[in-house]
Amino acid sequence: MKANKGQIERALKAPAETRFFLFHGPDEAGSRALMAAMANAVGTGAERVDLSGALLKGDPARLADEAASISLFGGTRYIVVEPAGEEVVPAVEALLESERAGNPVAIVAGALKPSSRLLKIALGHASALSFASYAPEGREADRLVIDLGRELGLTIRPDVARRIADASGGNRAIIGQELEKFALYADAAPGHPQEISHDMVQAVGAASEEGDLSRLVESVGGGDAVTLHAELLRLSSEGMTGVPLIRAVLRRMMLLARLRGEVERGNSVDAVMASQGKAIFWKEKDAVTRQLSRWRADLLARSIGRLMEAEQNVKAPGTIGTAAVDETLFAICRQAARLR
């Protein structure tokens, strides 16, 4: 069966009532977080059995056997299958057909096509739950940062959360790593909460390690093609390409569009910027002010449309991927240069 967020969260509180969970989708860190939630519900003393898709391909009966087996010490146990793909279909079929399978199974499969046999089996069986994880966006990403931070004893304002989410490209695993770094730096703990400031993010966050997207965003919005080229090369060498770059620039364009609407209703640029308070990081205010003075609402709307189209194209099968992203960013950068 297909589960929504509320259903999967409720099911993971009593995992033994479901024969197997299929965690899939492009956000594999999100899938592993669900798997960790299942492990917590089973209990810290439970026995974990790790299997791989390759192992089950050669021994399909192994999964059902492990799901029906009693722990050596008589306690609870659960089974994790990762990595996994279509090769585990016979093993899953055997699991679902078995008479007894008291131990819950979690399969982490990554992105699956709608035609996937594994996905169809999970969707069509009452004893299975399927949930697709996608990288959080917008307010959902901000909320994720705040919630994960709270678990570590960090108090995070929405504007700071937005900056951390942007710098991490919405990647749950990177967000978690950054927050752990902040907690260590601030000596934070659930019983000893500490607030994260923009200055702390600047000092010890991804930006301090040249890992954020701020220079990319400024180069696109400011029309600096030389810096944009250098940033694309740097980010590519660090494995960051495609959708995270689009979303970082898209957030800036949407911010400018919102503020430009106020300017074109008769408010001055300085007044509009002053009304934002701490919502815009102080080190970014000069660049945002310059860009707000140059960009017109119609051009911002056109750029936002191009960015959204580029994201859809890069996700579609058979496209040219990152090349399309780079082309879109350079096109917007050239438009910005003409506005100088």
In a nutshell, what does this entry contain?
With 340 residues, this protein is α/β, with parallel strands linked by helices.
Folded structure, characterized:
By secondary structure, this protein is an alpha/beta fold. It has three domains: 5-132, Rossmann fold (3-Layer(aba) Sandwich), CATH 3.40.50; 136-211, Helicase, Ruva Protein, domain 3; 213-340, Zinc Finger, Delta Prime, domain 3, CATH 1.20.272.10. It has helices at residues 5-12, 28-42, 53-58, 61-68, 89-97, 117-124, 138-151, 158-167, 172-186, 198-204, 214-222, 225-237, 243-263, 269-274, 285-294, 297-315, 322-338, and strands at residues 20-24, 47-51, 77-81, 105-110, 128-132, 154-156, 194-196. Strand 3, helix 5 (89-97) and strand 4 (105-110) form a beta-alpha-beta unit. The radius of gyration is 23 Å and the shape is elongated. Residues 207-211 have low confidence and may be disordered.
What are the salient characteristics of this protein?
alpha/beta; 7 strands; 5-stranded parallel beta sheet; 340 residues; 3 domains; 17 helices; Zinc Finger, Delta Prime, domain 3; Helicase, Ruva Protein, domain 3; two-stranded parallel sheet; 9% strand; elongated; Rossmann fold
CATH H-tier superfamily of the largest domain: P-loop containing nucleotide triphosphate hydrolases
Overall mean pLDDT stands at 86
Q: Write down the CATH class of the largest domain.
A: Alpha Beta
Instruction: Write down the oligomeric state.
Output: single chain
Low-pLDDT runs of 5+ residues are: 207-211
* CATH architecture assignment name of the largest domain: 3-Layer(aba) Sandwich
Binned strand content: 5-15%
Tertiary shape: elongated
Tally of extended strands? 7
The major β-sheet equals: 5 strands, parallel
- What class do helices, strands and sheet pairing give? alpha/beta
Distance between the termini: 55 Å
Rounded to an integer in angstroms, the radius of gyration calculated over CA atoms is 23 Å
Helix content: 55-70%
| Count of discrete alpha- or pi-helical segments spanning 4 or more residues | 17
Count structural domains: 3
Q: List the secondary-structure elements in sequence, H or E.
A: HEHEHHEHEHEHEHHEHHHHHHHH
CATH topology descriptor of the largest domain: Rossmann fold
> How would you write the strand order of the largest sheet?
2-3-4-1-5
InterPro entries: DNA_pol3_clamp-load_cplx_C, DNA_polIII_delta, P-loop_NTPase
EC number: 2.7.7.7
Protein name: DNA-directed DNA polymerase
Catalytic activity: DNA(n) + a 2'-deoxyribonucleoside 5'-triphosphate = DNA(n+1) + diphosphate
